[in-house]
Amino acid sequence: MIAASIWSLILPAVEMAEAQGKISWLPAAVGFALGVIFLIFINKLAQKLEEKENGKSLNMLTFSVTLHNIPEGMAVGVCFAGFLAGNSGIALLEAIVLAIGIAIQNIPEGAIISMPLKMEGMSKKKAFLKGVLSGLVEPIAAMITILLINIVVPILPYLLAFAAGAMIFVVVEELVPEMHEGEKSMLGVTGVTIGFIVMMVLDIVLG
Fold first, then answer.
1. Helix, strand or coil for residue 148?
2. 173, 135, 112, 191 alpha-carbon torsion, rounded to 10°
3. DSSP 97-125
4. N- to C-terminal Cα separation, the chain
5. Longest Cα separation, the chain
6. What is the pTM of this model?
7. What is the distance between the alpha carbons of residues 171 and 117, in angstroms, rounded to a whole number?
8. What distance in Å separates the CA atoms of residue 90 and residue 101, rounded to the nearest whole number?
9. Of 169, 160, 131, 161, which is closest to residue 44 (Cα–Cα)?
10. Tens digits of per-residue pLDDT, 48-90?
11. Are 113 and 59 in contact (CB under 8 A)?
12. Of 87, 75, 92, which is closest to residue 35 (Cα–Cα)?
């Protein structure tokens, strides 16, 4: 997600801003900051709702993961919208690589929901279905973004950076802390290194 944010979102945002005659770094900086702020707001909202639910933590976990999936779906949609626009510097394979990377990252997110539900006594099928449904918002968000391409294109540099900021927030706030839990945190570091290199190479070669 880190590599995809840089090569598939931030760098195209800078290049597109230059092509549009804007200050190259400004849309990237503003959009990135707004993406982080949006996810902070989402986190605060989820925490408040969890307090009101008086312990219905699994429902809130599902809600929280589902909310986080919205900007990830937007990221994919923005990339494909950029490709369809034809002047953003985003290649089709680059958008596909981002979609694949996010899809891979969704596997453990779905497990985060399904496994506790199964432990609480829910059947395997229902637990699996809930995990899958939590990610259903991603393709929906992506499709809505693509359908709004005429509105999206003028502000595409901001949206690309917004999606990058949202994704980096998820990495820093959730994935990295979880990576260091347990005795084998170095495996997490190794995984991040390998994942970053793979996504970087794919983005550069296919983009």
1. coil
2. -60
3. HHHHHHHHHHHHHHHHHHHHHHHTT--HH
4. 16
5. 58
6. 0.68
7. 24
8. 16
9. 169
10. 766 665 544 566 667 667 776 777 788 788 888 878 877 666 7
11. no
12. 75
